[in-house]
Design brief:
Layout (H helix, E strand, L loop, with lengths): L4 E5 L4 H12 L3 E6 L7 E4 L15 E4 L13 H19 L4 E4 L26 H15 L3 E5 L2 E2 L6 H7 L5 E5 L4 E2 L2 E2 H11 L5 E5 L5 E2 H13 L3 E5 L1 H18 L7 H8 L7 H4 L9 H14 L3 H4 L1
Parallel strand pairs: 1-2, 1-4, 2-3, 4-5, 5-6, 6-11, 7-10, 8-13
Antiparallel strand pairs: 9-12
The structure holds NADP nicotinamide-adenine-dinucleotide phosphate (NAP).
Length: 315
């Protein structure tokens, strides 16, 4: 890749910053395409929600990460998600034309109503619980039709995370966190694994690829490790899944009425209550090898809590 020019959309975001640096480390020139500059390379302004496509002049390949991300209150924000994840994504596809294209999608496209204890890339993609999963699925379907390499990571963690860790910390009340149902097995994705898949993926055959850490984790173990690294010992309590789901509906409904951010939603309960293990064989067959990033992440969190400095804030 060392003489290529690679456009990275969303290069100022949590994952995009790691991806842009990984691309630069291969010797390629990076063009950060988005509303704000990335950590490296030239910046070209693009608002994915505007009617214009990105300027990709002189670009050899594209890695697309820009997206409306999050767990919006049910029934709200759907248009904002569609404007970026569907309409903006289509404009990006048109501009990329037949250049090599890596499209960062999400395991949230998979149907949550079905067993997810071993999910391969043919798992159905319907039944989404929020606008994020729904619009990511529509966007990636267009990318697959256009011949892109589509990556589906699940629950990305690492330095600068502004989604998972903040949500987990918000859920702690009086030194305890309440989790739905019994422990589950879950594939998590070190951001370094997503970044290495993005650079390698520019050379993979078109199609969808699950991306994650080499082995699934126990939910309760990881929650315990992370919370104790950030806040010290935290009790884990369990409630039956139907109780958590009913509470999430009430909380999300109330939040919609008063316009606040709900602590839990039916989507977050679903993510925490059921096994979610990705089958990585297709990505591994390319020669890509994920690493287990959890020990390094915990070390980073402990260092941050010791120094009082957060990578999510100081990126
Ligand atoms: N984090 C995870 O656990 C996870 C899991 C699976 C998949 N993913 C995927 O990974 C990608 C990156 O997510 P992330 O976790 O890094 O989220 P993030 O930190 O919120 O980054 C999102 C990026 O998208 C950009 N963006 C949003 N709206 C835009 C717009 N209208 N025009 C141009 N750029 C816009 C943001 O730029 P601004 O700062 O200007 O808004 C930011 O650079 C997304 O495609 C997401 O679906 C993430």
């Amino acid at each position: 890749m060392n003489r290529m020019t690679v456009a990275v959309t969303g290069a100022n975001g949590f994952c995009g910053r790691h991806v842009a640096r990984a691309v630069a480390a291969t010797g390629a020139r990076v063009i950060a395409v988005g509303r704000q500059p990335g950590p490296v390379g030239e910046h070209r302004f693009w608002d994915a929600a505007s009617p214009t496509g990105p300027d990709l002049r002189g670009v050899d390949a594209v890695i697309h990460l820009a997206a409306a991300v999050g767990d919006p209150r049910p029934g709200t924000d759907a248009d904002a998600f569609t404007r970026v994840n569907v309409d903006g994504a289509r404009r990006l596809l048109a501009a990329a034309a037949d250049r090599p294209l890596v499209w960062v999608s999400s395991a949230s496209v998979y149907d949550p109503r079905l067993d997810r204890s071993s999910v391969d890339e043919d798992h159905p993609r319907a039944g989404h619980l929020n606008a994020y999963g729904r619009t990511k699925a529509i966007g990636e379907a267009a990318a697959l039709d256009a011949g892109a390499v589509v990556l589906r990571p699940h629950a990305v963690y690492g330095s600068g995370d502004r989604h998972l860790l903040p949500r987990l910390l918000r859920a702690v009340r009086f030194g305890a966190i309440t989790l739905p149902g019994n422990d589950i097995r879950i594939t998590l994705t070190a951001v370094e694994n997503l970044a290495s898949a993005c650079t390698a993926g520019l050379h993979w055959a078109p199609g969808a690829y699950n991306i994650g850490d080499p082995t699934p984790h126990s939910r309760d173990e990881v929650v315990g490790w992370v919370l104790s690294a950030v806040r010290g010992p935290t009790r884990i309590r369990h409630v039956p899944v139907p109780v958590a789901t009913a509470a999430a509906r009430v909380i999300a409904g109330t939040a919609r009425l008063i316009g606040s951010e709900p602590v839990i939603t039916p989507y977050s309960v679903d993510q925490l209550a059921h096994d979610f293990v990705l089958d990585l064989r297709r990505a591994r067959a390319t020669g890509w090898r994920p690493v287990d990033g959890m020990a390094d992440y915990l070390e980073l969190l402990m260092l941050e809590s010791f120094t009082g400095r957060s990578t999510a804030r100081s990126r």
